Amino acid sequence: MRSFVSSIIVMLLLVGLCTLPIVEAATNSYTKTLTTTTELSNGAYYTGYTISGDHMLGSLTGEYISPAFTAVNLTSADVNYSDDDDGYNQFDYGWLYSNTLWMNSTDGRHVTGGHAYYNIRYPFSNVVSSTTIPDAVITDSSGSHQDATKGSGATVTSLLGHVQQNYIDFDGTANGYTRTNYAYDYDAGWWAITAMIKPDGTSGSPIGISDAGSNAVIELQYVDSTADYWQLLVRDQNDNAVSSYNTSVTITPNAWHYVVMYADATYVYVYMDGQYVTKIDMTYNSSSQLNMDYIQLGGIYYGGSNIASWPGNMDEFRFMAGGLPTTERSSTGVIGTYSWACVNGNVPTKAATYKLSGAGDANLFTVITGYGVGGYYINDLSMTWTNTKPNIVSMFPVDDYTYDTDPTVTLAVNVTDADITYEDYFAAFFYVDGEYVGSAGRTTNGEIQYNIGTFTGGYHTWAANVQDTWSGVTSTGTEGFYVLSTLYIRDEQDFTNTIDDATVTLNFYTNNTSTTKTSSDGTIELTGLPVQDILVTASADGYYDRKTIITSLYDTQNIYLIDENASVIYNTFKLNTQSISYPVTDYWIDIQKPMNGTVDTVFSSYFGFDGSCGTYLIQSDVYKLVIHAPDGSEFAYGWLYPDPDGTMDITISSADGTDMVTDWLTTTLTVDEEANTITYYYSSDKDIELATFSISEDDEVLQSYNVTSDSYTFVYNSDASRHVYSLDVTITTTDGEEYEFTRPLTLNEDTINPFPTSYPDWFKQAIVSIVAVLFILGFSSFRADVGCLGAAGIFGAAYLFDWFPLSLTALFGIILIAMAAAIKFKRRQDRMY
Q1: Within a 13 Å sphere around the CA of 481, how many CA atoms are in the beta-carbon half?
Q2: I want to staple 619 with a disulfide (CB 3.0 to 4.6 A). Which of 173, 286, 437, 567 is the partner?
Q3: What's the rounded mean pLDDT across residues 211-228?
């Protein structure tokens, strides 16, 4: 069970360590007015225009395409005429999708667009009303049946809000259609067809996708019946057909409707005026192929001829090879209705300024195309686009990272920015411990670094904000890192200064490593050392050797040497090994001293302590002696002057007894379980200013006394119940010396011991082994196999109580179980014979 729980804890820790606060990119909307030559030309494509300052100058035909951001819309622009106008100046402006051209015009034209690569355009306003549209205009080189005519120029204001709008007019006669000459895999691909349609109430197919070499077709048919509705029909090259009808959305004849045919590689959907109508599953026949030749308007090709000719009007036809935004599928028809603020639709007057303006659900490019005879220029071009904020891929240092080899701290964020191609720069702003420390940047995707130099030791937090040119800001999470500190080598008599007049050799020891460093300026970087308690010895010409313990490599540490010219006493400290509860090698002693308003350790006995240790102490200074027990408890004695005899004996009482803790103080602790009392007595050779005694349990003070006598007996009366008390004593003399004593006491257990007792491991293992052997011997005369199994169980139980190691438990258990199996098998063999 213990092993299983440990595995679960390790797994949880690993999961926690692997979790990084990596921040994903978001978007923001950005509007910018392009007012300089660089801003207008950077990342843009243009021809026929001359860019100068904030002006785009044109005279004849010019085309301007903005940079390709994620979603960019024309917000506004001013068109200024500088010459007399002859009525032919016109401007198209709108959006160039990644695969679809969709344009609007200043004079109310609606230019039908096809695939951007083919740039199929239907300039219906360039032909006279009621004339047949020629091949040269519609770029159809595959057919000869084009009797679609330009509309009569009737104003349509009910939905579109424009004047002078022209449309395709189909008369419904046989072979009346026009083609787009565009091929696509309509079975597997994502595509969409949108159009404004005005049926006159007679059945026919306004839109069809045909294959001239087979009967394959996808058609949207208007059906004339009592209740007008649309029929969507799909027929593959094998003449397999499936259709679906609309029965819920009302169609009003002789009225404009916005119709969408939309495919997502599984279904073809029909929407009308923003409402879902019907759909067909395109996977009805897995062997079907619908890689058609062209899209046909006003009729459908089937069986070698054009059929289902349709009477009515069509405008704003678009085909898109790709997905269609939900906002457009659900549109009510007012799509792309950017307009120039003309006066009643009239042509511009000379020397006037007109404004292009609007906003919509656009994607990628803004396009402005000018057609003119007279001179004109465009300025104050303002565009809005969706900017992709920087994406923070990784951070360094990661959380809880330690700079253990180099104190120089470098912060870094690895950033990718989808828009960086069109930007000049993006920057990272770095913060440490909540304070801004500096910034760095780059012009390409990658890592942004900032070196903050050598940093103070300890734990620090850091974060960064990454900002691009288009006001997109991404913030990191907060990470933490450790910086190893510095060890200062000081003169104990002049501890405010470091020793920089001698070369100091320092050796750093752990249980199994040793590292040597030297210093000539009084400092040593703690880099390259294992992060744990380390024993340090220091030696230098003209100074006494010293050793101490570094308990934290993250905090500022000091080691103090004494000049050989100082008045010193070599003081030996001897621990009475009869008064302790653990092996003497598990204890260590610190000598501490007041230093610049605090108390610092000047000597430690750690590693190799055999009960006696010593060091040089300054004769006239006071020190504190601290004994560290392996159970974590500490016992402080002092303040003490160095003993003139050079030796101080220290006794820790295991029960009752007298401790000669200093050369001026004697104490006695007595615990009487029968009387349920704790008695502490002290006698001092010096005058006492204040002696404080307190007994506490569970951090609650139960009894406390303050006295000023040179000797005193403190008694605490307990009850017969089990208690774990803490006795705290502080004795201060009138000349400033202080003695502190803290001891845990357990009352009313089997024995009374100031320290928790612990049997040595070898003793516990020997007990377990003897019990197991006796168990085997007890069963050996009649059931040795039972004895072996029982002994294996004894080892297992001992492991659960931490009396036997896991490795030996497993080894002995396997051997004993195998022996039991062999004995059992032997018994069966004996019975058979």
Answers
A1: 23
A2: 567
A3: 72
> CA–CA separation, 106 vs 453, rounded Å?
60
**Nearest by Cα to 188 from 328, 296, 322, 329:** 322
CB neighbours of 540 closer than 8 A, spacing ≥ 6? 499, 502, 503, 504, 505, 561
User: In whole angstroms, what separates CA 310 from the centre of its chain?
Assistant: 59
Phi and psi angles of residue 665, each rounded to the nearest 5 degrees, phi first: -135, 135
Could you identify the residue written with the tokens 């050079």?
646
Q: What number of other Cβ atoms are within 10 A of residue 558's Cβ? A: 19
Percent of the chain with pLDDT over 70: 68
Tokens of 783: 């059931």
What are 459-510's pLDDT values in tens digits?
A: 889 999 998 888 888 888 899 988 888 888 888 888 888 888 888 888 888 7
With a pLDDT cut of 90, the percent of the chain lying above it is: 6
Instruction: Give the C-alpha separation, 727 to 720, whole Å.
Output: 18
- Cβ atoms within 10 Å, residue 542: 11
CA dist 735 and 732 (Å) reads 8
Residue 165 identity: Q
Query: Mind listing the pLDDT tens digit for each residue in 42-66?
Result: 777 788 888 988 888 876 667 777 7
CA 371 to chain centre: 52
Q: Are 699 and 693 in contact (CB under 8 A)?
A: no
| Per-residue exposure over 648-671, b if at least 16 CB sit within 10 Å of its own CB, e if not | bebbbbbeeeebebbeebebebbb
- DSSP annotation string for 70-118: SEEEEEEEEEEE-S---S--EEEEEEE-SS-EEEEETTS-EEEE--TTT
How many angstroms separate the Cα of 609 from the Cα of each of 410, 589, 603, 604? 42, 9, 13, 10
Residue 17 CA: distances (Å) to CA of 13, 20, 95, 397, 400: 6, 8, 48, 13, 9
How many C-beta atoms lie closer than 10 Å to residue 371's C-beta? 18
Sheet holding 178-179, edge to edge: 178-179, 294-297, 204-210, 217-223, 229-235, 241-245
The pLDDT assigned to 777 comes to 78
3-state class percentages of the chain: helix first, strand second, coil last, to nearest 5: 15, 45, 40
Q: What is the pLDDT of residues 17-42, one digit of tens each?
A: 233 334 445 888 788 888 888 888 87
Beta bridge partners, 738, equal 732
